[in-house]
Design brief:
The protein has 511 residues and is of the alpha/beta class. It has 15 helices and 23 strands. Helix 12 links the parallel strand 22 and strand 23. Helix 2 crosses helix 11 and helix 6 crosses helix 14. The longest helix is centred in the middle third of the chain and has 20 residues. It is globular and about 75 Å long.
Protein backbone atom coordinates (compact mmCIF):
# COMPACT_ATOMS: atom_id res chain seq x y z
CA UNK A 1 0.00 0.00 0.00
CA UNK A 2 1.38 3.40 -1.01
CA UNK A 3 1.59 5.76 1.94
CA UNK A 4 0.21 8.62 -0.16
CA UNK A 5 -3.06 6.83 -0.96
CA UNK A 6 -6.17 8.19 0.75
CA UNK A 7 -7.98 4.86 0.67
CA UNK A 8 -7.26 1.13 0.80
CA UNK A 9 -8.75 -1.27 -1.74
CA UNK A 10 -8.78 -4.81 -0.37
CA UNK A 11 -10.10 -6.73 -3.40
CA UNK A 12 -10.86 -5.89 -7.06
CA UNK A 13 -14.47 -7.08 -6.63
CA UNK A 14 -15.17 -4.78 -3.67
CA UNK A 15 -17.76 -2.03 -4.06
CA UNK A 16 -16.18 -0.07 -1.19
CA UNK A 17 -12.73 1.16 -0.21
CA UNK A 18 -11.49 2.01 3.29
CA UNK A 19 -10.49 5.52 4.34
CA UNK A 20 -6.88 5.58 5.48
CA UNK A 21 -7.36 9.01 7.05
CA UNK A 22 -10.16 11.54 7.64
CA UNK A 23 -11.49 12.43 4.15
CA UNK A 24 -13.50 15.62 3.63
CA UNK A 25 -16.52 16.00 1.31
CA UNK A 26 -15.65 16.74 -2.34
CA UNK A 27 -12.32 14.91 -2.23
CA UNK A 28 -11.36 12.96 -5.39
CA UNK A 29 -10.21 9.40 -4.61
CA UNK A 30 -7.17 8.62 -6.81
CA UNK A 31 -7.53 5.43 -8.80
CA UNK A 32 -11.23 5.07 -8.02
CA UNK A 33 -12.78 7.79 -10.21
CA UNK A 34 -14.98 8.84 -7.28
CA UNK A 35 -15.50 12.10 -5.39
CA UNK A 36 -16.61 11.84 -1.77
CA UNK A 37 -20.13 13.12 -1.12
CA UNK A 38 -19.62 13.50 2.63
CA UNK A 39 -16.98 13.17 5.34
CA UNK A 40 -15.49 9.67 5.65
CA UNK A 41 -13.83 8.97 9.04
CA UNK A 42 -10.63 6.89 9.21
CA UNK A 43 -11.33 3.15 8.95
CA UNK A 44 -14.79 3.69 7.45
CA UNK A 45 -16.09 2.63 4.04
CA UNK A 46 -16.86 4.76 1.01
CA UNK A 47 -18.80 3.40 -1.99
CA UNK A 48 -16.98 3.28 -5.31
CA UNK A 49 -20.01 2.23 -7.37
CA UNK A 50 -23.81 2.43 -7.00
CA UNK A 51 -25.69 -0.20 -4.96
CA UNK A 52 -29.42 -0.77 -5.25
CA UNK A 53 -31.52 -1.67 -2.17
CA UNK A 54 -31.02 -5.36 -1.38
CA UNK A 55 -27.79 -5.59 -3.40
CA UNK A 56 -24.81 -7.31 -1.75
CA UNK A 57 -21.93 -5.10 -0.60
CA UNK A 58 -18.48 -6.66 -0.68
CA UNK A 59 -15.29 -6.09 1.27
CA UNK A 60 -12.31 -8.51 1.16
CA UNK A 61 -14.10 -9.88 -1.93
CA UNK A 62 -16.74 -11.28 0.48
CA UNK A 63 -20.29 -10.19 1.28
CA UNK A 64 -20.48 -8.00 4.39
CA UNK A 65 -24.20 -7.19 4.08
CA UNK A 66 -26.77 -5.68 1.74
CA UNK A 67 -27.71 -2.10 0.92
CA UNK A 68 -30.80 -1.06 2.90
CA UNK A 69 -31.36 1.96 0.63
CA UNK A 70 -29.80 3.29 -2.61
CA UNK A 71 -26.07 3.99 -2.20
CA UNK A 72 -24.34 6.32 -4.67
CA UNK A 73 -20.61 6.39 -5.43
CA UNK A 74 -18.77 8.60 -2.92
CA UNK A 75 -21.27 7.97 -0.11
CA UNK A 76 -20.32 6.85 3.36
CA UNK A 77 -21.32 3.17 3.76
CA UNK A 78 -22.22 2.33 7.34
CA UNK A 79 -25.10 1.38 9.65
CA UNK A 80 -27.47 3.91 8.08
CA UNK A 81 -27.44 2.18 4.69
CA UNK A 82 -25.96 -1.31 5.19
CA UNK A 83 -27.62 -4.28 6.94
CA UNK A 84 -27.04 -8.01 7.39
CA UNK A 85 -29.29 -9.58 4.76
CA UNK A 86 -29.27 -13.27 3.86
CA UNK A 87 -26.80 -15.10 1.66
CA UNK A 88 -25.69 -18.67 1.06
CA UNK A 89 -22.21 -19.82 2.04
CA UNK A 90 -20.25 -22.50 0.19
CA UNK A 91 -18.45 -24.51 2.89
CA UNK A 92 -16.30 -26.44 0.39
CA UNK A 93 -15.01 -28.77 3.11
CA UNK A 94 -11.26 -29.47 2.82
CA UNK A 95 -11.04 -27.94 -0.68
CA UNK A 96 -8.20 -25.59 0.30
CA UNK A 97 -6.35 -27.80 2.80
CA UNK A 98 -2.65 -27.96 1.94
CA UNK A 99 0.42 -29.63 3.49
CA UNK A 100 2.13 -27.37 6.04
CA UNK A 101 5.67 -26.28 5.19
CA UNK A 102 7.32 -26.98 8.55
CA UNK A 103 10.58 -25.27 9.47
CA UNK A 104 13.39 -27.55 10.64
CA UNK A 105 15.10 -26.92 12.95
CA UNK A 106 12.41 -24.89 14.73
CA UNK A 107 13.05 -21.65 16.58
CA UNK A 108 13.53 -21.82 20.34
CA UNK A 109 12.55 -19.82 23.39
CA UNK A 110 13.68 -19.96 27.02
CA UNK A 111 10.93 -21.86 28.79
CA UNK A 112 10.43 -23.50 32.17
CA UNK A 113 10.29 -27.29 31.84
CA UNK A 114 8.05 -28.88 34.47
CA UNK A 115 8.67 -32.34 35.94
CA UNK A 116 6.10 -33.89 33.58
CA UNK A 117 7.77 -32.38 30.50
CA UNK A 118 5.25 -29.58 29.92
CA UNK A 119 6.69 -26.14 29.29
CA UNK A 120 5.71 -22.94 31.10
CA UNK A 121 6.19 -19.35 29.98
CA UNK A 122 5.49 -17.92 33.45
CA UNK A 123 5.89 -19.17 37.03
CA UNK A 124 2.96 -18.26 39.29
CA UNK A 125 1.31 -19.80 42.32
CA UNK A 126 -2.46 -19.69 41.92
CA UNK A 127 -5.37 -19.35 44.32
CA UNK A 128 -8.58 -20.61 42.67
CA UNK A 129 -12.12 -20.61 44.02
CA UNK A 130 -14.97 -23.06 43.55
CA UNK A 131 -17.58 -20.40 44.30
CA UNK A 132 -18.00 -16.65 44.65
CA UNK A 133 -18.40 -17.13 48.41
CA UNK A 134 -14.69 -17.90 48.78
CA UNK A 135 -13.49 -15.02 46.60
CA UNK A 136 -12.61 -12.63 49.41
CA UNK A 137 -10.65 -15.30 51.26
CA UNK A 138 -8.69 -16.03 48.06
CA UNK A 139 -7.76 -12.35 47.74
CA UNK A 140 -6.65 -12.27 51.39
CA UNK A 141 -4.26 -15.14 50.63
CA UNK A 142 -2.79 -13.40 47.58
CA UNK A 143 -2.59 -10.08 49.43
CA UNK A 144 -0.39 -11.69 52.09
CA UNK A 145 2.36 -11.87 49.46
CA UNK A 146 1.86 -8.45 47.93
CA UNK A 147 4.54 -5.77 48.20
CA UNK A 148 3.66 -3.06 50.74
CA UNK A 149 3.74 0.28 48.86
CA UNK A 150 4.33 2.23 52.09
CA UNK A 151 7.09 0.21 53.76
CA UNK A 152 8.53 -1.34 50.61
CA UNK A 153 8.47 -4.79 52.23
CA UNK A 154 8.15 -7.50 49.57
CA UNK A 155 7.37 -11.04 50.82
CA UNK A 156 8.54 -12.43 47.46
CA UNK A 157 11.88 -10.61 47.40
CA UNK A 158 13.73 -13.83 48.24
CA UNK A 159 11.98 -15.68 45.38
CA UNK A 160 12.89 -13.76 42.21
CA UNK A 161 11.92 -16.62 39.90
CA UNK A 162 8.30 -16.58 41.11
CA UNK A 163 6.16 -14.19 39.05
CA UNK A 164 3.59 -13.73 41.79
CA UNK A 165 0.72 -15.17 43.80
CA UNK A 166 -2.51 -14.60 41.90
CA UNK A 167 -6.10 -15.03 43.11
CA UNK A 168 -8.50 -15.89 40.28
CA UNK A 169 -12.10 -15.57 41.44
CA UNK A 170 -15.49 -15.66 39.73
CA UNK A 171 -19.18 -14.94 40.32
CA UNK A 172 -20.75 -18.38 40.13
CA UNK A 173 -20.37 -21.91 41.58
CA UNK A 174 -23.71 -22.09 43.41
CA UNK A 175 -27.34 -21.38 42.55
CA UNK A 176 -26.60 -23.20 39.30
CA UNK A 177 -27.73 -26.27 37.40
CA UNK A 178 -25.95 -29.52 38.26
CA UNK A 179 -25.32 -30.50 34.63
CA UNK A 180 -23.72 -28.68 31.66
CA UNK A 181 -23.12 -25.33 33.47
CA UNK A 182 -21.37 -27.15 36.32
CA UNK A 183 -19.33 -29.37 34.00
CA UNK A 184 -18.16 -26.33 32.05
CA UNK A 185 -17.14 -24.45 35.21
CA UNK A 186 -15.26 -27.47 36.54
CA UNK A 187 -13.48 -27.99 33.23
CA UNK A 188 -12.38 -24.34 33.29
CA UNK A 189 -11.09 -24.47 36.86
CA UNK A 190 -9.30 -27.75 36.21
CA UNK A 191 -7.63 -26.30 33.14
CA UNK A 192 -6.18 -23.53 35.28
CA UNK A 193 -5.26 -25.89 38.12
CA UNK A 194 -3.28 -28.02 35.64
CA UNK A 195 -1.80 -25.09 33.70
CA UNK A 196 2.00 -25.35 33.45
CA UNK A 197 2.34 -21.65 34.26
CA UNK A 198 1.26 -22.49 37.82
CA UNK A 199 3.97 -24.05 39.97
CA UNK A 200 1.37 -24.77 42.66
CA UNK A 201 -2.32 -24.10 43.27
CA UNK A 202 -4.64 -23.64 46.23
CA UNK A 203 -8.35 -24.30 45.61
CA UNK A 204 -10.70 -22.62 48.11
CA UNK A 205 -14.39 -23.40 48.61
CA UNK A 206 -17.02 -22.41 51.14
CA UNK A 207 -18.35 -25.91 51.76
CA UNK A 208 -22.07 -25.85 50.91
CA UNK A 209 -21.97 -24.79 47.22
CA UNK A 210 -23.15 -26.77 44.22
CA UNK A 211 -19.57 -26.92 42.94
CA UNK A 212 -18.23 -29.04 45.80
CA UNK A 213 -14.45 -29.37 45.98
CA UNK A 214 -14.65 -33.17 46.28
CA UNK A 215 -16.81 -33.35 43.16
CA UNK A 216 -14.45 -31.04 41.26
CA UNK A 217 -11.41 -33.10 42.22
CA UNK A 218 -13.01 -36.41 41.30
CA UNK A 219 -14.63 -35.25 38.05
CA UNK A 220 -11.44 -33.64 36.76
CA UNK A 221 -8.87 -36.12 38.06
CA UNK A 222 -7.19 -33.60 40.36
CA UNK A 223 -7.00 -35.82 43.43
CA UNK A 224 -3.58 -36.57 44.84
CA UNK A 225 -1.73 -33.79 43.02
CA UNK A 226 1.33 -32.94 45.19
CA UNK A 227 1.33 -29.23 44.41
CA UNK A 228 -2.41 -28.71 44.81
CA UNK A 229 -4.08 -28.02 48.15
CA UNK A 230 -7.88 -27.86 48.56
CA UNK A 231 -9.55 -26.18 51.55
CA UNK A 232 -13.12 -25.28 52.53
CA UNK A 233 -13.84 -22.34 54.78
CA UNK A 234 -16.51 -24.13 56.81
CA UNK A 235 -14.38 -27.23 57.52
CA UNK A 236 -11.27 -25.15 58.24
CA UNK A 237 -13.02 -23.14 60.95
CA UNK A 238 -13.74 -19.86 59.18
CA UNK A 239 -12.00 -17.07 57.31
CA UNK A 240 -8.92 -16.47 59.49
CA UNK A 241 -8.02 -20.13 59.84
CA UNK A 242 -8.52 -20.81 56.14
CA UNK A 243 -6.32 -17.87 55.17
CA UNK A 244 -3.62 -19.00 57.60
CA UNK A 245 -3.61 -22.58 56.24
CA UNK A 246 -3.55 -21.43 52.63
CA UNK A 247 -0.76 -18.91 53.29
CA UNK A 248 1.25 -21.65 55.04
CA UNK A 249 0.91 -23.91 51.99
CA UNK A 250 2.03 -21.14 49.63
CA UNK A 251 5.07 -20.47 51.82
CA UNK A 252 5.91 -24.17 51.71
CA UNK A 253 5.74 -24.13 47.92
CA UNK A 254 7.77 -20.96 47.33
CA UNK A 255 11.29 -22.45 47.62
CA UNK A 256 10.43 -25.23 45.16
CA UNK A 257 8.71 -22.81 42.79
CA UNK A 258 11.71 -20.50 42.91
CA UNK A 259 14.14 -23.32 42.05
CA UNK A 260 13.18 -23.28 38.36
CA UNK A 261 15.53 -22.20 35.59
CA UNK A 262 14.72 -21.21 32.03
CA UNK A 263 16.26 -23.37 29.31
CA UNK A 264 16.02 -23.31 25.49
CA UNK A 265 13.05 -25.33 24.21
CA UNK A 266 11.55 -25.71 20.70
CA UNK A 267 8.83 -23.30 19.61
CA UNK A 268 6.59 -26.38 19.26
CA UNK A 269 5.83 -25.82 22.95
CA UNK A 270 4.06 -22.53 22.13
CA UNK A 271 0.28 -22.51 22.44
CA UNK A 272 -0.90 -19.05 21.41
CA UNK A 273 -4.40 -17.68 22.06
CA UNK A 274 -5.54 -15.36 19.25
CA UNK A 275 -7.83 -12.53 20.35
CA UNK A 276 -9.17 -9.19 19.16
CA UNK A 277 -11.04 -6.62 21.20
CA UNK A 278 -12.03 -3.01 20.72
CA UNK A 279 -11.75 -3.66 16.97
CA UNK A 280 -11.98 -0.97 14.29
CA UNK A 281 -12.09 -0.74 10.51
CA UNK A 282 -8.31 -1.20 10.35
CA UNK A 283 -8.23 -4.43 12.40
CA UNK A 284 -8.85 -6.65 9.38
CA UNK A 285 -6.26 -4.77 7.32
CA UNK A 286 -3.27 -4.45 9.65
CA UNK A 287 -3.02 -6.18 13.04
CA UNK A 288 -5.23 -9.20 12.32
CA UNK A 289 -3.52 -10.21 9.04
CA UNK A 290 -0.12 -9.53 10.62
CA UNK A 291 -1.03 -11.77 13.55
CA UNK A 292 -2.18 -14.29 10.95
CA UNK A 293 1.29 -14.21 9.39
CA UNK A 294 2.79 -14.75 12.87
CA UNK A 295 0.31 -17.59 13.46
CA UNK A 296 1.53 -19.30 10.31
CA UNK A 297 5.08 -19.07 11.64
CA UNK A 298 4.07 -20.54 15.01
CA UNK A 299 2.40 -23.47 13.21
CA UNK A 300 5.32 -23.95 10.79
CA UNK A 301 7.66 -24.14 13.79
CA UNK A 302 5.50 -26.92 15.26
CA UNK A 303 3.38 -24.91 17.70
CA UNK A 304 -0.35 -24.35 18.20
CA UNK A 305 -2.60 -21.32 17.69
CA UNK A 306 -6.18 -21.10 19.00
CA UNK A 307 -8.80 -19.00 17.21
CA UNK A 308 -12.00 -18.48 19.21
CA UNK A 309 -14.88 -16.01 19.63
CA UNK A 310 -17.43 -18.08 17.69
CA UNK A 311 -19.96 -15.22 17.25
CA UNK A 312 -17.13 -13.16 15.73
CA UNK A 313 -16.37 -15.88 13.19
CA UNK A 314 -19.99 -16.11 12.10
CA UNK A 315 -20.31 -15.30 8.40
CA UNK A 316 -16.67 -16.14 7.72
CA UNK A 317 -16.74 -19.79 8.80
CA UNK A 318 -16.91 -20.95 5.17
CA UNK A 319 -13.35 -19.69 4.70
CA UNK A 320 -12.19 -21.91 7.57
CA UNK A 321 -14.14 -25.05 6.61
CA UNK A 322 -12.33 -25.03 3.28
CA UNK A 323 -9.06 -25.31 5.21
CA UNK A 324 -10.30 -28.13 7.46
CA UNK A 325 -8.23 -31.32 7.38
CA UNK A 326 -11.43 -33.37 7.22
CA UNK A 327 -15.13 -32.88 6.57
CA UNK A 328 -15.77 -33.96 10.17
CA UNK A 329 -13.66 -31.09 11.52
CA UNK A 330 -15.36 -28.64 9.16
CA UNK A 331 -18.84 -29.79 10.17
CA UNK A 332 -17.99 -29.31 13.85
CA UNK A 333 -17.44 -25.62 13.11
CA UNK A 334 -20.69 -25.32 11.14
CA UNK A 335 -22.59 -27.03 13.98
CA UNK A 336 -21.23 -24.40 16.39
CA UNK A 337 -22.63 -21.65 14.17
CA UNK A 338 -26.06 -23.29 14.16
CA UNK A 339 -25.94 -23.57 17.97
CA UNK A 340 -25.11 -19.87 18.28
CA UNK A 341 -27.93 -18.91 15.91
CA UNK A 342 -30.37 -20.83 18.09
CA UNK A 343 -28.83 -19.60 21.34
CA UNK A 344 -29.10 -15.90 20.43
CA UNK A 345 -32.61 -16.44 19.07
CA UNK A 346 -33.71 -18.01 22.37
CA UNK A 347 -32.24 -15.05 24.24
CA UNK A 348 -34.23 -12.61 22.11
CA UNK A 349 -31.23 -11.36 20.19
CA UNK A 350 -29.31 -11.99 16.98
CA UNK A 351 -25.66 -12.42 16.10
CA UNK A 352 -25.54 -9.01 14.42
CA UNK A 353 -25.98 -7.51 17.89
CA UNK A 354 -22.28 -8.32 18.43
CA UNK A 355 -20.49 -5.27 16.97
CA UNK A 356 -20.15 -2.89 19.92
CA UNK A 357 -20.63 0.89 19.80
CA UNK A 358 -16.84 1.21 19.73
CA UNK A 359 -16.58 -1.24 16.82
CA UNK A 360 -19.12 0.80 14.87
CA UNK A 361 -17.45 4.10 15.70
CA UNK A 362 -14.25 2.58 14.33
CA UNK A 363 -15.88 1.71 11.00
CA UNK A 364 -17.29 -1.82 11.41
CA UNK A 365 -20.93 -2.23 10.43
CA UNK A 366 -22.19 -5.85 10.50
CA UNK A 367 -21.02 -9.01 12.24
CA UNK A 368 -20.16 -10.37 8.78
CA UNK A 369 -17.67 -7.56 8.24
CA UNK A 370 -16.27 -7.93 11.73
CA UNK A 371 -15.88 -11.71 11.37
CA UNK A 372 -14.12 -11.53 8.02
CA UNK A 373 -11.49 -9.26 9.57
CA UNK A 374 -11.28 -11.23 12.82
CA UNK A 375 -10.60 -14.60 11.19
CA UNK A 376 -7.48 -13.17 9.53
CA UNK A 377 -5.71 -13.75 12.87
CA UNK A 378 -5.66 -17.48 12.05
CA UNK A 379 -3.39 -17.13 9.03
CA UNK A 380 -3.52 -19.64 6.19
CA UNK A 381 -2.68 -23.09 7.58
CA UNK A 382 -5.06 -26.03 7.91
CA UNK A 383 -7.80 -26.16 10.54
CA UNK A 384 -6.85 -29.37 12.35
CA UNK A 385 -9.42 -29.57 15.18
CA UNK A 386 -12.42 -27.87 16.81
CA UNK A 387 -12.73 -27.85 20.62
CA UNK A 388 -15.45 -27.05 23.11
CA UNK A 389 -14.99 -24.27 25.65
CA UNK A 390 -12.01 -24.86 27.98
CA UNK A 391 -11.34 -28.35 26.59
CA UNK A 392 -7.66 -29.36 26.75
CA UNK A 393 -6.01 -28.51 23.43
CA UNK A 394 -3.80 -31.44 22.44
CA UNK A 395 -3.50 -31.01 18.65
CA UNK A 396 -0.62 -29.15 17.03
CA UNK A 397 -1.36 -26.52 14.41
CA UNK A 398 -4.30 -24.16 13.91
CA UNK A 399 -7.33 -25.11 16.04
CA UNK A 400 -10.66 -23.48 16.87
CA UNK A 401 -12.23 -23.28 20.34
CA UNK A 402 -15.90 -22.43 20.88
CA UNK A 403 -16.18 -19.34 23.08
CA UNK A 404 -18.32 -16.20 23.32
CA UNK A 405 -16.98 -13.06 21.69
CA UNK A 406 -16.62 -11.28 25.03
CA UNK A 407 -12.85 -11.07 25.50
CA UNK A 408 -12.40 -12.01 29.19
CA UNK A 409 -14.68 -15.05 28.84
CA UNK A 410 -13.06 -16.09 25.58
CA UNK A 411 -9.47 -15.83 26.78
CA UNK A 412 -10.35 -17.63 30.02
CA UNK A 413 -11.47 -20.62 27.95
CA UNK A 414 -8.34 -20.52 25.78
CA UNK A 415 -5.98 -20.37 28.78
CA UNK A 416 -7.93 -23.18 30.47
CA UNK A 417 -7.31 -25.15 27.27
CA UNK A 418 -3.55 -24.65 27.66
CA UNK A 419 -2.65 -21.35 25.93
CA UNK A 420 0.65 -20.09 27.38
CA UNK A 421 0.78 -16.79 25.44
CA UNK A 422 -2.06 -14.45 24.39
CA UNK A 423 -1.85 -12.18 21.32
CA UNK A 424 -4.55 -9.51 21.45
CA UNK A 425 -5.20 -7.07 18.58
CA UNK A 426 -7.08 -3.84 19.23
CA UNK A 427 -8.02 -0.77 17.23
CA UNK A 428 -9.84 1.28 19.84
CA UNK A 429 -7.34 0.54 22.60
CA UNK A 430 -8.36 -2.41 24.79
CA UNK A 431 -6.37 -2.90 28.01
CA UNK A 432 -6.30 -6.50 29.10
CA UNK A 433 -4.27 -9.19 30.82
CA UNK A 434 -4.95 -12.81 31.64
CA UNK A 435 -2.74 -14.36 34.31
CA UNK A 436 -1.06 -16.80 34.31
CA UNK A 437 -0.50 -16.28 30.55
CA UNK A 438 1.21 -13.08 29.30
CA UNK A 439 -0.85 -10.93 26.91
CA UNK A 440 0.80 -9.13 23.96
CA UNK A 441 -1.12 -6.07 22.73
CA UNK A 442 -1.09 -5.32 18.99
CA UNK A 443 -2.32 -1.88 17.86
CA UNK A 444 -4.07 -1.66 14.49
CA UNK A 445 -3.32 2.02 13.85
CA UNK A 446 -0.51 4.42 14.63
CA UNK A 447 -2.55 7.28 16.22
CA UNK A 448 -3.96 4.94 18.87
CA UNK A 449 -0.55 3.32 19.43
CA UNK A 450 1.03 6.73 20.02
CA UNK A 451 -1.81 7.75 22.32
CA UNK A 452 -1.62 4.52 24.38
CA UNK A 453 2.04 3.54 24.20
CA UNK A 454 2.04 2.50 27.85
CA UNK A 455 -0.49 -0.25 27.02
CA UNK A 456 0.47 -1.33 23.48
CA UNK A 457 3.37 -3.71 22.78
CA UNK A 458 3.51 -3.57 18.97
CA UNK A 459 2.31 -1.03 16.41
CA UNK A 460 0.83 -2.71 13.33
CA UNK A 461 -0.32 0.67 12.03
CA UNK A 462 2.94 0.69 10.08
CA UNK A 463 1.07 -1.43 7.51
CA UNK A 464 -1.59 1.26 7.09
CA UNK A 465 1.13 3.91 6.91
CA UNK A 466 2.82 2.06 4.04
CA UNK A 467 6.00 1.54 6.07
CA UNK A 468 5.84 -2.24 6.48
CA UNK A 469 4.34 -5.29 4.78
CA UNK A 470 1.97 -7.68 6.51
CA UNK A 471 4.57 -10.46 6.38
CA UNK A 472 7.31 -8.26 7.84
CA UNK A 473 5.04 -7.18 10.69
CA UNK A 474 4.08 -10.82 11.24
CA UNK A 475 7.75 -11.75 11.52
CA UNK A 476 8.16 -9.01 14.12
CA UNK A 477 5.19 -10.34 16.09
CA UNK A 478 6.56 -13.89 15.98
CA UNK A 479 9.88 -12.78 17.47
CA UNK A 480 8.01 -10.83 20.15
CA UNK A 481 6.09 -14.00 21.01
CA UNK A 482 9.40 -15.85 21.45
CA UNK A 483 10.78 -13.01 23.62
CA UNK A 484 7.67 -12.85 25.82
CA UNK A 485 7.58 -16.65 26.16
CA UNK A 486 11.20 -16.36 27.30
CA UNK A 487 10.24 -14.00 30.13
CA UNK A 488 10.06 -10.50 28.64
CA UNK A 489 7.32 -8.56 30.43
CA UNK A 490 4.42 -7.25 28.35
CA UNK A 491 2.89 -3.83 28.94
CA UNK A 492 -0.18 -5.36 30.63
CA UNK A 493 2.09 -7.35 32.96
CA UNK A 494 3.95 -4.21 33.97
CA UNK A 495 0.60 -2.68 34.97
CA UNK A 496 -0.40 -5.88 36.80
CA UNK A 497 -3.40 -6.74 34.62
CA UNK A 498 -4.72 -10.29 34.80
CA UNK A 499 -6.01 -10.84 38.33
CA UNK A 500 -9.51 -9.51 37.67
CA UNK A 501 -10.02 -10.74 34.10
CA UNK A 502 -10.66 -14.41 34.94
CA UNK A 503 -14.23 -14.95 33.70
CA UNK A 504 -15.56 -18.50 33.14
CA UNK A 505 -18.47 -18.74 30.70
CA UNK A 506 -21.73 -18.86 32.66
CA UNK A 507 -24.43 -21.02 31.08
CA UNK A 508 -27.98 -21.63 32.23
CA UNK A 509 -30.22 -19.97 34.77
CA UNK A 510 -29.01 -18.51 38.05
CA UNK A 511 -31.34 -19.90 40.70
Amino acid sequence: MAAASLTIRLHPADGVVIARTDILPGTPLPGEGVITAERIPPGHKVATRPHAPGEAVRRYGQIIGVATRPIAPGEHVHTHNLGMGEHERDYGFCSEARPTAFIDPPATFDGIVRADGRVATRNYIGVLTTVNCSATVAHYVADAFRRNPFTGHDPLAEFPNVDGIVALTHRTGCGMSDDEPLRLLRRTLAGYARHPNFAAVVVLGLGCEVNQIAGLMEAEGLEGKPRLRALTIQASGGTAKTVARAVEFVREMLPEANAVRRTPVPASHLCVALQCGGSDGMSGISANPALGAASDLVVRHGGTVILSETPETYGAEHLLTRRAVSAEVGRKLVELMRWWEDYTRRQGGELDDNPSPGNKAGGLTTILEKSLGAMAKAGTTNLVEVYGYAEPVTAKGFVFMDTPGYDPVSVTGQVAGGANVVCFTTGRGSVFGCKPAPSIKLATNTPMFLRMQDDMDINCGTIIDGEETVSACGERIFHEILAVASGKKTKSEVFGFGDQEFAPWVLGATM
